[in-house]
Amino acid sequence: MERTESTQDTTAFNMPDWMIQFADQKREFNKRPTKIGRRSLSRSISQSSTDSYSSDSSDDETSPRDKQQKNSKGSSDFCVKNIKQAEFGRREIEIAEQEMPALMALRKRAQGEKPLAGAKIVGCTHITAQTAVLIETLGALGAQCRWAACNIYSTLNEVAAALAESGVPVFSWKGESEDDFWWCIDRCVNVEGWQPNMILDDGGDLTHWIYKKYPNMFKKIKGIVEESVTGVHRLYQLSKAGKLCVPAMNVNDSVTKQKFDNLYCCRESILDGLKRTTDMMFGGKQVVVCGYGEVGKGCCAALKAMGSIVYVTEIDPICALQACMDGFRLVKLNEVIRQVDIVITCTGNKNVVTREHLDRMKNGCIVCNMGHSNTEIDVASLRTPELTWERVRSQVDHVIWPDGKRIVLLAEGRLLNLSCSTVPTFVLSITATTQALALIELYNAPEGRYKQDVYLLPKKMDEYVASLHLPTFDAHLTELSDEQAKYLGLNKNGPFKPNYYRY
User: Residue 62 pLDDT more than 90?
Assistant: First the structure.
């Protein structure tokens, strides 16, 4: 097993028989939606104009923690906004299933073997229709799941209700307070007669909570799967300090996450989030994007295509050079802060936009974050007596200075796309499939394969996830001949690139 710094590559990974057979049969399960699926879609859209799954005003004033709710089976082991929204959430999940071919195929092919039988997975991710498809797939593969949200604004209440109705203990609603956020995580973890043996995290908050409150649980936990740059950074810190108790799989740095979810997802969802919240015209607007990683690249490409004038800030000379070669002007934030119309952060860092920057912004400047954490914009510095906060609409606030200048702050500095809009389902299918396979690998790995360290997904698994999505495009891979494979020194079935290859 090779090792690079604190990251290990799982070269010992062996593809199980059901996965090999599945690769030959994947075309059967990757067909376009049937007529039934299309009817479900049209019914959901048409009824959304006449039916409402929004709670009435009196219901909105009551905290879900103070409600006594039961699903149709009589269970109360959940806490959502309104269990009566379950039918609408189920329709959204059915629509998402049509754009998540690999997960649906994985569910159908592997559920006979139940590779996650006995797994007790506690999860902390965004709770959306796409995540619901993942959760229900894990259940179909044999796992028991309990779930909380990793973001206080990204939960779709109707989807959380649908999960609760189906029997998944889910604790989440849109607009949680900070206290609610940690209470929901604790309700997932601290339950009599049930103890997790796997963690699926997005941001590291769940892992942090267990370390802080219930460290003895790690005696039975087999592994952690983490998908965000923030959470992965925390895991590496634990590993470096010798405090990581179990193996962890770094999904964030897998090729299928970085090159598809981070890039293509953000390329589409940045425009959606800004349009839904501000109704802004992008043509001719001056935008500064802080960070030119995969998320920054996606944001810049979308805004440039819409006619915006885009500036980039970056600390890494390699990413900076890429920005220059892609036609963007590299600047320091101080150089353009007075003139730009939109400021977007996507670095994963803290205090990227400080109070000094906010004070110097022009009237009407839009400020938002596309990174996972809410630390990039110093929102706390804006909660002072001399500044006035004015709610415009959901997730949109005016922050007004004494001289009348105002900025438009979106989602209080939290993740824009999942807080204010939605994200492309097909791209999330790629990430969700990667997460599912990582859980299967860690859960079934023989003792000794993984030590108490952070691992990258094996290249073979990345290629496999990608191959499952190709039939959707009616794409046909070229196959190596024996002579060509020998010439390149490759196995005809992959992996096709060395571990150090940068796509």
Answer: no
**Is residue 295 part of an annotated ligand binding site?**
yes
**Per the annotation, does 474 bind a ligand?**
no
Helices 129-140 + 86-98 axis angle, to 10: 80
Q: Is 193 left (phi over 0), alpha (psi -120 to 50) or beta?
A: left
Tell whether 189 is in a known binding site.
Answer: no
Q: Give the CA angle between residues 144, 146, 150 to the nearest 5°.
A: 140
d(CA 290, CA 352): 8
Is 417 annotated as a binding-site member? yes
Strand partners, 451: none
* Residue 314 annotated as lining a ligand binding site: yes
128 marked as part of a ligand binding site: yes
Q: What is the pLDDT of residue 23?
A: 53
The reply to whether 223 sits in an annotated binding site is no
In this prediction, residues 54-64 reach a mean pLDDT of 61
β-strands 396-400, 388-393: how paired?
antiparallel
Given its phi and psi angles, is residue 405 left (phi above 0), alpha (psi -120 to 50 degrees) or beta? beta
Q: How far apart are CA 435 and CA 141, in angstroms?
A: 13
Strand order in the sheet with 248-250: 3-4, 7-9, 454-456, 248-250, 223-226, 198-201, 120-125, 144-149, 170-171
The reply to whether 293 sits in an annotated binding site is: yes
Residue 218, pLDDT above cutoff 90:
yes
Angle at CA 68, nearest 5°, toward 65 and 70?
115
Query: Is 202 marked as binding a ligand?
Result: yes
Nearest to 206, CA basis, from 218, 191, 188, 193: 188
pLDDT-based confidence at residue 207 (cuts at 50, 70, 90): very high
Q: Is 364 annotated as a binding residue?
A: no
Q: Is 297 annotated as a binding-site member?
A: yes
Residue 272 structure tokens: 């959606």
Q: Which runs of consecutive H residues, i.e. helices, occur in 241-354?
A: 255-256, 266-278, 294-305, 317-325, 333-336
Is the CB of residue 310 less than 8 Å from the CB of residue 282?
Answer: no
To the question of whether residue 257 is assigned a binding role by annotation, the answer is yes
pLDDT tens-digit series, residues 224-263 = 999 998 899 999 999 999 999 999 999 988 888 888 888 8
* Mean pLDDT for all residues in the chain: 88
Tens of pLDDT, residues 67-82: 999 999 999 999 999 9
Angle (CA) 107 108 114, round 5°: 65
